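Q: I'm teaching a short session on how sequence maps to structure, and I want students to see two examples side by side rather than one. Could you give me a first protein with its sequence written out and its structure tokens following it? Keep the formatting plain so it prints cleanly on a handout.
A: Of course. Example one:
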Amino acid sequence: MTWALPASDGGSAITAYVVTVLRDGTAVGERRTLPPDAPSTTVTGLSNGTTYTIEVAAQNATGTGTPATASAAPRAATAPGAPTEVSTKPGTTGVTVTWQPPTDDGGADLSSTTVEIRNASDDSLITTATVPMPTKTASLDGLTAGSTYYAIVYAVNSSGVEGSHATTADFTLGTPSPAALFGIGAWKTSNPATDAPMICILWQINGTNQDGISGQIHFQLTAEDGSDPDASSDWAINYDPNSNYLTGTDGQYAWCADAADIPHSTSNTVWTPVSFTGADGNSNTISLDTAAMRDMTIMDPDGNNARPAFTNP
């Protein structure tokens, strides 16, 4: 309940408000004394459907004024409305569901939202998640790639009343695609801090877990066409997503070093990647040899098609 300031303070500043709840003329509970800057209060512990009279009187240094009265009958909270703008974003083993809360809270503050994922073929419940307000998204895992599901979303208010359901269209989880090396090349540039010559190895991995691959690239001195690798000249790059993945790209990685820190190539030879390995931690692996990489290229930052073999005199 709320009230406005009285038209007159009786010549002395208001010091408090006294709120009395009556049922059939009898006071219910203790009188409430509120500070002068509190123009509202919430009365609890009343019976739904019973009419009460509420009296509010202002107090000042000389006493308590004539109360203002109003009558009201509390009602039980009803079911909230259904969430709106519900959408799903399926992955390969889970789905992210987003929504907007209902505008009708059923007469009590919304407290949480529940998301159910059900099998589209038999309506069986697969998994569920409940998130507190004002959260408007939930990610649920443990689903099966290639299977079809739908989501049910509903709000619950502070009285524990479950709201109307919003049901999504069916969605099908994707099938994971294995990681694969799509391109690799060497880019000659300069160190931005020292202007010293620098070599960068760039590569791109495609597949479901393209941004989570760790592995190793082995280089050996070969003839200019990549043949006759010299095993004694072997050197390797170890890479992982934290150190080498280029955030914001479509599966691209990079490794860079000053040219002076890379073994020199000899006359008529080039450094060629002779093996490329990678793994995503989920039993998906990549393994390529020289022949598989020989014709690969990748677009470097200068807009050129970089090839995997390079000289470092």
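Q: Perfect. Now a second example for contrast.
A: Example two:
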Amino acid sequence: MLEFGSAQWGVDRILGPPVTRRGGRQGKSVAEVAHYLQVQQTSKVDLTCLGDYIARFFHHDLTHSTRENTKFYVKNGNKLAISLKAWTQQIFIRAGQDAYFGPKLDELSPDLPLDLIRFDELSWQVFYHYPLALRKEGTSLANKIRTALKHYFELPKSQRLAKAWFVEALEDECRGVGLDTEEVASQMLFLYWGINTNISKMGYWMIAHALFRPHLVDLIRNETALAFENSDIPDGEYISNVQKCPKLNAFWLECLRLASSSTALRYVTEDTIIGDKILREGHTILMSARQLHLNTSSNAFGDDAAIFEDERFLKNTHLERNLNFRPFGGGKTLCPGRHLAKYMALTFVAQVFRKFDVTLAKDQPFPAYEEDKPTIGILSGKEDLLISLRARDGRQGM
């Protein structure tokens, strides 16, 4: 949190024993309560309510804004094409921002999603303690995003109109331990980044895999057809249900397995011997899930662990619960937003292929995973894909 601009006193109050406590949560720090609140926000009825709101946002954006927004168009010879990376980044970030912060944040800072995209590309510098003198751009972007959030939290709550109750509840917790608006904005910067970045990359990878494997497009359209039976907006609960859409859910898990590079961070509190290694007190241990996901010597994913197999999790339904499969971390740091991430990715992909015929704008290889840069969540594509969209309702494509 210090690396995201919080003051030491603010961090102490977030992590330390609270000054006051409400709702029977005595003894919990604000950080612990934040995790609890996010779990509640993304569970059961609250998950469905928030997920359906975001699905409606996707519907509107794909129906209107995708035709009007030129920020993700790039030149392709003498024509224009859509950058798959920019398109998925912007639509997911705008959807998450609107759901958690309401439309007012976009009014205050329309280019905030673009600032976040660039900040995310540099965020590894924060977690790996890159020297401050060498990360001036990242620091400048963090300050810019924090300033926008500060202006947002200066507004009366009645003007924000966020669908999610989580941000307002967490703000109350922060102010309850004495944080001022500046510190609230600093704490929320980490939240704003965490909610809005990793999931857009899953949208990118799922569409990329489907483009290079046309049978997946037919699979998505056929298996999700009933989810659109009564509306142009899909039934997210139906799509996310592994019994209703088993192949789509298996496709999601395989994309997640190959793209996830979630990193568990643990501090060594005393000298510890593991095998012939000594872990010294005061050091930090980073453990990447990617090595587990690609390990061919384990009995989890087999000799073809490095290869995409869309039915891998369909053929072995126990793999999702295998200890080697950790796309969202584990233990106390298990990502509380994992259910919403799935809801968003599947409702987005289902709508894209229902509304559009998606094709490559030119001959391009399948993008490599960006493994050269440290990552703590979902890997980006090393290369972009240029795509064309043609509306399936007969209207002009893009």
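Q: What should students look for in example two?
A: Point them to this: The two ends are 41 Å apart (CA to CA). Also worth mentioning: Residues 7 and 277 are 36 Å apart (CA to CA).
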